[in-house]
């Protein structure tokens, strides 16, 4: 940029000192070209800014859609977690029901065992009384045989 300024200064000095029309024309041409270059640069700059704005909007929309997808995925995971929790609760309930049935069955077996123990106790007592009875009768018969003889 300083080179252009030096060239303009030299051309203006020459045009004023020598009153050279070529120098004046060259000076004006350089200024006009410089303005045109600036206008073109500004135009390109504004086009670039527009494109950058478009890219920014596109990127923001992309991020919004990605955020939306992640949110949907998160909601799906939450729903899936709820569904799995419900299934596990159902399974736990089934297992609890099965455990209750086994406990009821065990209680019935315990009741049956108690009945068998009671019957065994009665049978043992009855057998003991029969044994004592037969032993008493045998003893009495033996004593009676000794006394009657």
What is the element layout, followed by pairings?
Elements: H1 2-18, H2 21-148
Helix pairs in contact: 1-2
Model description:
With 149 residues, the chain is an all-alpha fold. The chain has one domain (2-148). Helix content is 97%, strand content 0%. It is built from two helices and no strands. The protein starts with a helix and ends with a helix. 1% of the residues are buried.
Largest sheet report? none
- Low-pLDDT residue intervals, each spanning 5 or more residues: none
Residue-averaged pLDDT: 86
- The number of helical runs is 2
How large is the radius of gyration? Answer: 58 Å
Features:
97% helix; mainly alpha; rod-shaped
Short précis:
By secondary structure, the chain is mainly alpha-helical. Helix content is 97%, strand content 0%. It has one domain (2-148).
């Amino acid at each position: 940029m300083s080179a252009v300024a030096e060239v303009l200064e030299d051309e203006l000095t020459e045009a004023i000192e020598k009153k050279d029309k070529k120098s004046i024309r060259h000076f004006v041409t350089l200024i006009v070209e410089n303005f045109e270059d600036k206008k073109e640069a500004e135009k390109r700059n504004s086009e670039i800014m527009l494109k950058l704005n478009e890219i920014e909007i596109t990127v923001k929309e992309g991020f919004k859609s990605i955020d939306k997808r992640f949110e949907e995925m998160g909601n799906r995971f939450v729903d899936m977690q709820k569904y799995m929790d419900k299934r596990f609760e159902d399974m736990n309930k089934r297992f609890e029901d099965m455990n209750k049935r086994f406990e009821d069955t065990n209680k019935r077996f315990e009741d049956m065992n108690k009945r068998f123990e009671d019957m065994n106790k009665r049978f043992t007592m009855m057998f003991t009384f029969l044994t004592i009875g037969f032993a008493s009768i045998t003893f009495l018969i033996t004593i009676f045989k000794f006394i009657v003889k």
